[in-house]
Amino acid sequence: MDSLTQIALGAAVSVAVMGRRTAVWKAALWGAVAGTLPDLDAFIDHGDAILNMTRHRAESHAPLVLTLAAPVLAWLVSRLPGESGHFRRWWLALWLALVTHPLLDAMTVYGTQLLQPFTDHPFGVGSIFIIDPLYTLPLIAGVVAALRLKNARGFAWNRAGLALSTLYLGWSVLAQQHVTQVAREALQAEGVQAQGLLVTPAPFSTVLWRLVATTPTHYREGHYSLLDKDRRIEWTEHERGADLIARHGGDANLARMATFTHGFYSVTSGDGHLYVTDLRMGQEPTYTFRFDLGTDEARASGGHRPTLAGSRPDLGTALPWLWMRLRGERLPSLASPVKAAAP
Q1: Is 270 exposed, middle or buried (0-12, 13-18, 19+ CB in 10 A)?
Q2: pLDDT over 60 (residue 144)
Q3: pLDDT tens-digit series, residues 267-305
Q4: What residue spans define the domains of the chain?
Q5: Where are the alpha helices (DSSP H) in the chain?
Q6: pLDDT above 70 as % of the chain
Q7: Is residue 257 classed exposed, middle or buried when 0-12, 13-18 and 19+ CB atoms within 10 A define those classes?
Q8: So what's the pLDDT on residue 149?
Q9: 58 near 116, Cβ under 8 Å?
Q10: Per-residue pLDDT tens for 73-107?
């Protein structure tokens, strides 16, 4: 999730655990610090753009590693004036603030390596977008209420914010399961045998959902809103680059992306360069994580490190489209489809 959300979650958890044992502002401050610490790994340069992506949310997001770090951080905080008698409580508060960070991240589609150092498998439920105000605002409201009121009522508001945000996560999973069933029925009606099906929310809500269905040669993209009047899905179909995948499948960077994306990727070429795109984050025709793997000669000689070649949508076009589609309006895709189909 975004940094503001993680700060709010860490602060809310710490305030809830510490209660009246310390100043509310201290609990909120140190909870916010613990809540954002795991993301400091984003400042580590691993040598190239693909490694920087796939090594983010690794050891620093492993609950085992964070569990070992929690007593050290608690010891430091408890050395502050007036806190020496609360070491164990700080330990619990900061441990929860630390471990809830990767658990929340795992609800997004990016990929969080929860079981490091035993495996680098990236876990991602994909039921919530990286920025979702309906999850974040209750947390902020609860922490602000606790800071302002500094009494039982304020602590109750903070607990209520945590409860509402947690219930919202549960709702997101239920909504995802419903949309998954709708997507499967739509594919079955068209006779499409999909290798993989990705169902993840469009930006900022859990009302509009983006769908990606892959076959060995193509991928289909569609959208479904919970406010749609029927269960019809209009798909656009695009080539995955099957020939390029077959030809370059042994490339280490391509293989790494295939694993990290759970197979939701495409490969293209242009100007003699090979490109690999993560299909999970973005929307046709723009994707956040698209990488230039270089020319055949450069890759063979090791003279090219993958670089980020992603693009961002035109917000003036994309945001109105998302809002109208969320409301259930049937709109042409932002992509230029190779083929459009509807059951």
Answers
A1: exposed
A2: yes
A3: 999 888 999 999 999 999 899 999 999 888 877 777 778
A4: 3-124, 178-341
A5: 3-18, 24-36, 49-54, 63-78, 87-105, 133-149, 152-190, 242-248, 252-260, 296-301, 315-326
A6: 97
A7: buried
A8: 95
A9: yes
A10: 999 999 988 888 899 999 999 999 999 999 999 99
Contact predicate 290/273, CB 8 Å: no
Helix (H) or strand (E) holding 265: strand 265-270
Distance of alpha carbon 220 from alpha carbon 214, whole angstroms: 6
Tell me the two tokens of residue 165. Answer: 């945000």
Q: How many CB atoms lie within 10 A of CB 327?
A: 12
> Over pLDDT 90: what percentage of the chain?
85
For residues 142-181, b (16+ Cβ closer than 10 Å) or e, as one string? bbbbbbeeeeeebbebbeebbebbeebbeebeebbeebbe
Whole-angstrom distance, CA of residue 174 vs CA of residue 164: 15
Reported as type and span, the H/E element at residue 341 is strand 339-341
| DSSP state at residue 240 | -
Confidence band (pLDDT; 50, 70, 90) for 337?
very low
Nearest by Cα to 281 from 184, 328, 212: 212
314: its two tokens: 């035109």
Q: With a cut of 80, say whether residue 335 has pLDDT above it.
A: no
Q: Collapsing DSSP states into helix, strand and coil, what is residue 239? A: strand
pLDDT range class, residue 340, cuts 50, 70, 90: very low
* Alpha carbon 44 to chain centroid, angstroms: 19
Least Cα distance to 16 among 158, 149, 145, 151 occurs for 158
201 sits in which H/E element: strand 196-201
Mean model confidence pLDDT for the chain = 93
Give the Cα separation of 52 and 254 in Å (integer).
Answer: 14
